[in-house]
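Journal club prep — side note

Before the paper discussion, L.F. wants everyone to see what a predicted structure for a comparable chain looks like in token form. Sequence:
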Amino acid sequence: MPKAKPAKLKVSAANAPMAAVNPAAAQAWMDITTECARFAMDRVQQDFAAQRAMMACTSPADLMRLQVEYCQTATKQYADQATRMVELMTAAMGQKNEDGTSPFSRKYDDIPL
């Protein structure tokens, strides 16, 4: 399945405070939640398809084969999703603001001279 492009940050009442303080963090948060929702929807659809296939089995051997395939596929997909989440979080930590600074850098100097 092709990866979806990150959506442009749409400021709503729920994410307006975060977007005002740190737009890069808000965008990263939106990207991560969008990816989690996409993965969950895909998995639910595949789970229902597996259930229908298992209910249509006519022998214990067919059922066992389908269960093994289901478990192997689900394990691989969850591992791939964990890798994608780590990549998204790593990318979020490396994002820069428009002024070229890290979104987590301090905007003031409070160190006495």
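L.F.'s comment for the group: The longest helix spans residues 60-93. Keep this in mind when we get to the figures.
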